[in-house]
Amino acid sequence: MKLSPLSVPYKAVQKGASIVFTLAFVLFSGASAVLGGLGGPLVTVGLLGGIVVLLVAYEVLYYRRYEYELTADTFDIRSGVVSRRNREIPLRRIQNVDISRNVVQRVLGIAALNFETAGGSGTEAAIRYVTFEEAKRLQNEIARLKRGDAADAPEVESDELFALSDRELAIVGALSFDPRGLGILFFLLSGSIPVVSSFFSFGGETLVLALGGLVVLVAILFVSWLAGFVIAVVNYYGFRLSRTDDELLYERGLLQRYDGSIPFDKIQTLTIEDNPLKRRFGYATLAIETAGYAPGQGSERGSEAAVPLATRQRVVSLANDIEAFGTPTFTRPPKRIRRRYTARYLIILGVVTGALFAVVTALDATVPWYGTLAVLPVIPVAAHYKWKHRGYWLGENHVVTRNGFWKRQTKVVPYYRIQTVIDSRTIFQRRWRVATVTVDTAGSLSLAAQDAAAVDIEAADAERVRAELEDRLVSAVADRRSRRRRSRRPLVGPVEPGGDDSPPNEGSDPTDDTTPDERSDAREDSNPSGA
């Protein structure tokens, strides 16, 4: 099969725009004098013409030499202009086939496909570009082959679980903050835009400086809120979530439209997330992490969200539909840990106050450096809420942890998804006789050190929790493998008579019928990795 012919002009224009921009920058720099001596505008026109010819020629050759083929067991890609590259991607390893389209691509009727495999740190393969109809066909065919359905099997029906209304989209934006707003504001105040920064020039009087600081604080909050609002609306416009028997299907996006899937069999962790504003109005977000790479993630985290915003009760209910973990009863850290958090905040406040005092003294300014001490009464309250929103719970089939106040995350991890259990204790934790037990999975956020963790629990409890998690891991994986063997069916290709009862071939990989993180050798050992 071939790419869409429209991919040739689209990719040529796409690449040409960046090259022309770079060339324009060079021409307006010191290099323009050299080029001027060599012919001036004629050289520029000739150079641009040559670039256009080379781009079009390359894209035509790329189009002619690019082929892909979907077989019963693999997805094959043959590509390359200068050097040829042949790839065979086993269908059983394909985790998601995600479709994305920006505004121009939707007008042209083309789409990009991303193939993401379990355990990968990025997109395994990408097709740029095919028609939208062909993209949907490939997405559906690969899902059918992985299920083992026959070619004439009826199309799998999906049930809509959630659709984001315009009102809910506005609420998503209103309750969203983006820390990049601080960077935007710093850019505005840095003098890079004189007209804007001139509004924030203050004299040396204390009152004027205090008012200026208040204006800056309000501006930071407003810019952060506005950035969060715009990003949320662009990411989640037209959001829909549906489900079939074996996967979740989602659509979202305004400028960039995403159409992808989240296989139930690849889910590692569920995260229920909220902040003080969302908690105040009874809302929450549900995020899903899959093995190694988030569905459609790319460089964004937005596509991880299974439900960008809904009532907390609805989010918890949906999470229980995916993983029936029940109603957790959290065990919090010991109460004395509140003193530790208070001491930590006091140290931070002392450092900030000392730094401000040093700056004021060096500049001989009249800034009230002691103004930071006004937050002293708030510190014990902040320490209490930090303690209050932490905890862990060991259920029958899941471990659930909770951490954070400004960004509270409740993480649900099935025992059979655990890869490593880590008991860590810093110097300060040892002094307070506490420890942190981290549950490492193959989830996408594990790479960013955002695993589920029971933080600052009693040291004795940490040893007990680690041992219990390791025992439940071995038991859960053994039970899951036993159940899957009893109901074994091929992951790819049509069902063959007698195939379900046939034993695996001698010497074959015993994990072929399990997810990549279910490494049988490690799981059957009573001492898992990290014990």
Automatic annotation (TrEMBL):
Domain YdbS-like PH: 63-142, 236-295, 387-468
Annotated region described as Disordered, given as residue ranges: 478-531
Compositional bias segments (type: Basic and acidic residues): 516-531
Superkingdom to which the source organism belongs: Archaea
Transmembrane segments: 43-61, 182-202, 208-234, 345-363
Keywords per UniProt: Membrane, Transmembrane, Transmembrane helix
Protein name as annotated: Putative membrane protein
Organism in which the protein naturally occurs: Halogranum amylolyticum
Lineage of the species this protein comes from: Archaea, Methanobacteriati, Methanobacteriota, Stenosarchaea group, Halobacteria
